[in-house]
Write a structure and sequence with these properties.
Layout (H helix, E strand, L loop, with lengths): L1 H17 L12 H29 L8 H8 L25 E8 L15 H4 L1 E3 L3 E2 L5 E10 L4 E10 L6 H6 L12 E2 L9 E10 L5 E10 L3 E11 L4 E4 L2 H14 L8 E8 L6 E8 L6 E9 L5 E5 L13 E9 L1 H64 L3 H42 L1
Antiparallel strand pairs: 1-15, 2-4, 3-4, 4-5, 5-6, 7-8, 8-9, 9-10, 11-12, 12-13, 13-14
Length: 451
């Protein structure tokens, strides 16, 4: 008995010394109320975890609260067509005060007509691939470029023609500067033979020009040997409206036939070729080519010929090399026009730094506002849960009180009556508050009018 009294006294002293750090257990014999209280705490805990998860997601992504499904979604491959590409910048070495920044300008691609060619750099044979000069359509909606591949085992090459759809919400200059191979269409519109069993054979396709509205593009396929020179050039036209290419090889057969019939000259025994010049300015449905024979130091003219864009008809335009035939120049390209003045580069750098600094400030400010909004939403949700719990407990106490004093249908009717009275009082209170708010607004409006 003495030990029991000593234990009670020690507990009482501890309670006085440590205050509310010793929790007082909640005692309620009503099991339903205990269960409701437990469910309330569970819901609050769930809301707390959601709130913490949302805050961590705003601060860092990924985080420890993420589920496996969320991790998988975050690590899923992104659509390369939707990736944002910035304009490339020349990096400035740490030991240099100023690095000349290149300036660009947009010029005609097929100028003079028939001049576009692929230039392979020394790095091509090391990297075994090169993306050559591209051509932009007249409406600046697409860029077409050749991708050339090198096979070192046979010293041969092959080529594909790809299309990049340009972003429309930019200036024409920025459209070209931000064009990236990551945005290219997956399938090439035209390809050479990929067989590499012939040593030193090269196959390339070069864009020549677009037609006036950008719906068709003229390309030339060159096949030859690095030890022997070019064997032949074949023009192609790709129609974007039907997504189909047309070979214009019949123009070569027509040239051979003409010189055999009229001059008894067998071109198959000679070294000769054609040069696709572009679309005719007078009739954009016709492609113009120039034919030359290589019989010595000076090429011999074999005439200027035209063929329809689908390769259906061939026509001799002129045998006089001095006669001028108007060729359209429709496509565009980007070329370096010099360097940007140092003062301009310095001012642009300062502006970019200011922009980046402002962006960082806005991002921090937005992050704080988002976290505050999450906290506010979390507190409102907890308040709603408490109010909902209180209402449910009041309703439960009312039911239990009615059941203790009445029985059967009488209890149900009495419960409905009391709930209706409570709802009426609630609506009256809401209406009173609404009327009070309207009166306040009317007073403010009257004060504004008096001013």
């Amino acid at each position: 008995m003495i030990y029991a009294l000593l234990g009670i006294a020690a507990a009482f002293c501890a309670y006085i010394q440590w205050g509310d750090e010793i929790p007082v257990p909640f005692v309620d014999k009503d099991q339903n109320k205990q269960e409701a209280k437990y469910l309330l705490n569970v819901k609050k805990q769930e809301e707390k975890e959601k709130y913490k998860k949302a805050v961590l997601k705003r601060r860092s992504n990924p985080n420890a609260f993420m589920t496996i499904e969320e991790y998988e979604q975050l690590s899923a491959p992104k659509d390369r067509m939707e990736s944002d590409i910035e304009i490339p910048k020349v990096p400035t070495p740490a030991d240099m005060v100023y690095v000349p920044q290149p300036a660009y300008k947009i010029t005609r691609y097929n100028n003079p007509p028939g001049s576009p060619e692929i230039t392979l750099t020394n790095a091509f044979y090391e990297k075994r691939q090169q993306n050559a000069q591209g051509i932009v359509s007249p409406d600046f909606t697409k860029l077409v470029y050749p991708a050339v591949y090198y096979y070192p085992n046979t010293g041969s090459t092959a080529c594909d023609i790809f299309v990049i759809n340009l972003e429309q919400a930019k200036s024409n200059m920025d459209k070209i500067l931000t064009a990236s191979t990551i945005h290219r269409l997956s399938e090439p519109i035209l390809s050479t033979d990929k067989a590499n069993d012939n040593y030193y054979t090269f196959r390339t396709i070069t864009p020549v020009d677009f037609n006036h509205d950008g719906t068709k593009i003229l390309l030339k396929e060159k096949i030859g040997n690095t030890k022997d020179g070019i064997w032949k050039t074949t023009p192609f036209v790709y129609d974007f409206t039907v997504n189909n290419s047309y070979s214009l090889k019949d123009v070569r057969d027509s040239i051979v036939y003409y010189w055999k019939e009229n001059n008894d000259l067998n071109l198959d025994d000679k070294r000769w070729d054609i040069i696709p010049l572009g679309f005719a300015a007078s009739n954009p449905n016709w492609v113009v080519v120039s034919a030359v024979a290589y019989t010595g130091d000076k090429p011999v003219n074999l005439g200027v010929w035209a063929i329809t864009s689908k390769g259906e008809k061939t026509r001799l335009l002129s045998l006089d090399p001095t006669k001028s035939i108007q060729i359209g120049m429709n496509g565009y390209k980007l070329v370096k026009s010099g360097v940007v003045h140092p003062s301009i580069s310095e001012e642009e750098e300062k502006q970019l730094k200011r922009i980046e600094k402002n962006k960082e400030k806005e991002a921090k400010k937005q992050k704080k506002e988002d976290i505050k909004a999450l906290e506010k939403s979390y507190k409102i949700k907890l308040k709603e849960l408490d109010e909902e719990f209180k209402e449910s407990q009041k309703d439960y106490d009312l039911r239990r009180k009615i059941e203790g004093s009445t029985s059967g249908n009488e209890g149900i009717e009495k419960y409905k009556q009391i709930k209706a009275e409570q709802e009426l009082k609630k609506q009256q209170e809401l209406e009173r508050q609404r009327q009070k708010e309207l009166e306040r607004l009317e007073k403010e409006k009257a004060k504004e009018q008096n001013k």
